[in-house]
Amino acid sequence: MSSELHQDSKTIESVSTYEGLTMYDENLTMYENKKRQSSTVAMVLTLCAAVGMAILLVLLVFGYRQRTANNPYEDAQMLELKSQLETHPKDEKLIQMFRDRDQSLRQAYFYNKDFMRVGGWLVFGVCVIWVIAARLTAWTTETPPTPNLENNGGTTWKKHGTAQVALFICGVGFLIGMIYLGVKQRVTTFENNKTQTEIAMTAPPNSTAHPAPTANLSQTTNVSNEADLQDIKSTQNISTVKASETQALPEPTSQTIAASKTTSDTVTDVTPQTPTVTTATDRKTSSTMADATTQVTNLEEFTANWAAFRGSMGTGTSAYENIPVKWNAETGENIRWKSEIPKEGNSSPIVWGDKIFITGADEAVRQIFAYSTKDGKLLWTAETAANLYGPDDHKPQMGTGFASPTPVTDGQHVAAIFAGGEMFCTDNAGKLLWSKNFGIPKSGYGYASSLAIFEHLAIVLIDQGVDSDVKSGQPLSRLYGIDLATGNVVWETVREVPASWASPIVAYISGTPQIITIAIPGIIAYDPRTGKELWRAMGVRGDVGPTPTWFDAMVYGVPNDHSPLLAIDATGSGDVTNDKILWQTDESLPAISSPIAMRDFLLTLADGGTLACSDRADGTFLWYRDLDSTEVNASPSAVGKYLYLCTKDGNTWIVEPTRDGCLRLDGTATNEAEPIAAPDGSIGEGLSASPAFQNGRIYLRGIRNLYCIENP
Asked: What's the pLDDT at 582?
């Protein structure tokens, strides 16, 4: 019996061995087939990666050459236009051609810069594909595994085959996606560049919609031969200079401050005062020396006037609702008066009581003009000499003009700053009180940020330099609080940011004042009494032009049309990037004009005339409408339930935003498919400055004239 069992055991073992060997042969055949398949997969994937790499390299080389070719500093046409402008500085056609060519070059430069950044990631992706292809190739040369007769040997090959197919699908899909993104980005870049080139000599952008950049400037960050402006990684908080570590302002250059002049025969002689730089001891004194003559009378009076860019609160909202809704300069309809402006400028008008203040300048002189609100008579002119004589690499290209920043007033003082860093202040009668010079800014387009005002302080934001200055630990940007009565620096804060052209505003968050600024890398708030940083929200990239706005406890900032609009709860402290940015959007963003918040809405007006509306609380995009206009520089303004939209051709549209769209003055709804035609107001000349409002009136600054519009 035992021998029979042993024999049966041998028989079974033999049969098992035979079946195992048979299975091994079958699996070996399967393995060889998989090996051939894997070899084919590896070859195809390697070929795809090689083709993808070649395409990327060609696109990157092309992009680099385009980026180099679009440098505004080296463009032959720009240099020729600049040379012609030196000979004919008042030729408006030349000025417009210069600005258009500048805009075209900077648009192309930054589109190519963005593509170079994306291209780096694409190259990384292709490298990943190469690694996958190499691994598949290695699998095709593996020695077949020895059979395991006790198990099902087919499992191993099945697993290998499944893994290879999965990797192949993922790898090829990833490669195709990367190539698609790269080609799409390149095509988009090409089309945008083409569009910019086509409009370059036809519809020139002027300067500031907000008194910072012009149409060209606001779309691009300063392009420097030293280094590109790149996104800055999150840095430690910007330090506030302590009293014991006070850094003096740049040594003032020698300059002659002309005596204030009036339009009458009487000229008041004023002895120029040397620009004052306070010491650590002086600052402690100056911070407490504001008396009744330097304080704003009261907040009610302050808000009733239009004391700074976009109004005393920096929001573009009128304190009055009885503002005209129809006017026409050609027929004279509702035009109370118009007055010629002696010097060019893109600054917006400000109003206090019975006077309107604007600025103008040319290469030789910087001026403040005061007009009577009653009849538009030019009451007085105050001026200072220009300061444009520095190293060639620091001489600004005047794309923004010499007088882009809007001045400020507290009813007793008027302060203004200009492209070359010149700043001076007069009393309400035009008498020169003090002047100082911050030096030629390290910025291709000169100083362009408007002043802000808080109590007795003028808030001066000078963002300059490039990313390499920040990364080297030597940032050039500063924020100052300067006493209007004396010109003394009350506080000074170092800002670790490169050049920007947006203006600071003073927001009152839950009753607490905050200075709101925007520049790469984020939106940063400061205490206006000390200059100490309060909070920051990261996420700003590219060129920075539009000025932020605020509503209740929310701050809204849009850097440009390539970086998202950020909606921030301004009640936090420190780095609030992760918990206080409530929403963001990239729908129809402007590169020049500032956003506006009114009622339940947050609205933006893109440079091409597209008005976009989002829910102010949660960012839900609601609608967009196009104006029948080609270009916008001025920022939107709110008057009661109406939105005033001024375009560069001198026209103004007035609409009422609703959740479903916007209504015209007669209550008719607008159509998303058709542009809003027939403007409600026209001054018949170019318009880049933002409006100013007073009880029953709107003031508009055109290229040549200042207009007072009032209902009869």
From this structure: 97
What residues contact residue 12 under an 8 Å CB cut-off, 6+ apart? none
3-state secondary structure of 203: coil
Cα–Cα dist 538/519, whole Å: 10
Q: What integer pLDDT is reported at residue 262 of this predicted model?
A: 35
Q: Which residues contact 563 (CB under 8 A, 6 or more apart)?
A: 539, 540, 541, 542, 589
* Cβ atoms 274, 251 nearer than 8 A: no
What pLDDT, on a 0 to 100 scale, did the predictor assign at position 338? 97
What number of other Cβ atoms are within 10 A of residue 589's Cβ?
A: 22
Q: What is the DSSP letter of 529?
A: T
pLDDT band of 84, cuts 50, 70, 90? confident
Tokens of 91: 């030729």
Per-residue model confidence (pLDDT) at position 439:
86
Amino acid occupying residue 345:
G
Evaluate if residue 420 carries a pLDDT over 80: yes
Bridge partners (DSSP) listed for residue 513: 508
Instruction: Name 492's bridge partners.
Output: 480
Two tokens, residue 483: 């006493």
Q: Which two tokens stand for residue 673?
A: 């498919």
Find residue 709's DSSP bridge partners. Answer: 335, 698
Q: Which residues contact 375 (CB under 8 A, 6 or more apart)?
A: 337
Task: Report the Cα–Cα distance between both ends of the chain, in Å, rounded.
Answer: 129
- φ, ψ (nearest 5 deg) of residue 293: -80, -15
Q: Is the distance from CB of 371 to CB of 705 less than 8 angstroms?
A: no
Cα–Cα distance, 179 to 122 (Å, whole number): 8
- Using the predicted structure, report yes or no on whether residue 417 has a pLDDT greater than 70: yes
Tokens of 248: 């003096």
At 471, the amino acid letter reads K
Phi, psi angles (nearest 5°) of residue 190: -60, -45
CB 591 within 8 A of CB 545: yes
In whole angstroms, give the CA distance from residue 527 to residue 530: 6
Q: What's the whole-number average pLDDT of the chain?
A: 76
Report the pLDDT value the prediction gives residue 371, as an integer from 0 to 100.
98
Q: Find all residues with CB under 8 Å of 444, minimum gap 6, and list them.
A: 72, 73, 222, 223, 224, 396, 397, 499
Of 601, 567, 563, 560, the closest CA to residue 581 belongs to 567
Pull the structure tokens for residue 439. Answer: 């030096």
Closest listed residue to residue 305, CA positions, set 467, 453, 425: 453
Query: Please, is 472 exposed, middle or buried when counting C-beta atoms within 10 Å of its C-beta (0-12, 13-18, 19+)?
Result: exposed
